Structure formats: structure tokens, C-alpha cells
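Reopening this one. Same input as before:
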Amino acid sequence: MTPSPQNGMAIAFQGVTYRFANGHELLTNLNLQVSRGETLVLLGRSGSGKTTTLKLINALVTPTTGEVQVEGRATTQWDPIRLRRGIGYVIQDAGLFPHFTVERNIGLVPAIDKWPPERIHQRVTELLQLVGLEATLASRYPRELSGGQRQRVGVARALAANPPILLMDEPFGALDPITRAELQREFLALQQRLRKTVVFVTHDLREALLLGTRIALMESGRLVAALPPEAFTHSIDPLVKRYLDAFGAAPPEGNRGPA
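Same output, byte for byte:
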């Protein structure tokens, strides 16, 4: 995937509505842009349209009306395989193949792209170090790892072919609080180094404020607001205030964008 120079935008939703064949609408008239190198957090309760928004980016679903653009080109104009190979995808509990070793899981996309075995091995070793895992874990299977280790492997797999865009769907949601906090800190450090374009889904306000350079609050398939963390915490929008009141805690210090 070659970045487009147009407007510095990696992803753009233009009047996007998505509905089922029975007429039920999951997203309504979504207009949203994601700049290159930012971490946009999609925040909202279950059923608000967050995961559907992610699936529209990598063309797992296509808009009923409107257009989603990735690197200046509508997703419907991309070859879907090429599009998805340029986008890393991290889901809750990693989604690793249980019968593959850690090395095969991480090296899956490079292998599909016919990288030489030596290059794949080198890349796996680099990525294990990058996500804070010992190289000796490469020969293990997912069942032999802790939850935090599996999630780190999932991030490494998403980064394997060096995609410019990462989609992360509740990646830390199934972890215990201590491991989750560790991975949040590691994600921030990793993003400061790599400056990927990240769209991150969560229902946790604290996680959103910590990790996002912008927070897009969604409610019933509609975008309520898309604001930097500080502006989000001071918003007068009733739905934003309701979300802030529901958590009832001071926001953590977090990601404030590129230095």
C-alpha cells in the first residue's frame, strides 16, 4: 500500500450509511477523517457501530451509501486482498491460529507474500523484541502463552508486513487490569516509535483518554463528537457529558499526539 499525498488523510468516511438487507441501520451518515500517524479511538457502548466502522475500513463490509476512502481511494476500488495486506488487524484475545507456532502466526502475511524464510525469521525475531517478548517463545504454541503474551504476539503479527494502518478492536479488553495497564503503556511507547495510523475500538473511557490523539464517541450508529482528549473532557455535548459522568473519574495523562 503506497501512501497518497492527498491532504495527509489516511482514512476518510464520506456520508457512510450501512444497513442490513432487512433495513436495520448500523451506521448513519458517518463523516470522519483519520490523519496519518494519529490514533483515533472509537468509543461507545456495545452496538454503537464501532466494530462495523472498522470492518468498513478493510472492506469486510461495504457501505450501503456513501464512501470509505483508504489512502485516497475508495475501498470498493481496491483489490480487497491488497487492501487488507496493507492493514494490520488486532482483535481481543489476539485471534491466533492455535495449531501454528508463534513464529508461523507472526510470519503469516510475509509468508503469503512469499518472503524468503530467512527474512521471515529475522522479521519475527525483530518483532518479538519490539513487543517485549523473548525470542525463545517463537517455537511455542498459543496455548503455552499467557493472555498478555498472546496479545503481544497478535500485535506483532499485525505489524509483520509493516502496514501503514492498524485496526485494533478491543485488543486489551479480555486481560486482567495489571496486564492491561502494562500493554497500554507499551502500546503508547510503540506508537511513539512507529507512528502508524491507528483506529482503536474501546468502550473504556480511561483507555480512550490514555491512548487516543482523538476520541470519536459513537451512539446508536451515529458520530456524536470527535475531539482531542482534553477537549473531550471539557465538552458540553450532553452525550459526551453523560459518558464522562458514567465513569466519574479524572482522566489519566495520555497520548497528546506527535511531538
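So the earlier flakiness isn't reproducible anymore. For the record, Residues 102 and 138 are 5 Å apart (CA to CA).
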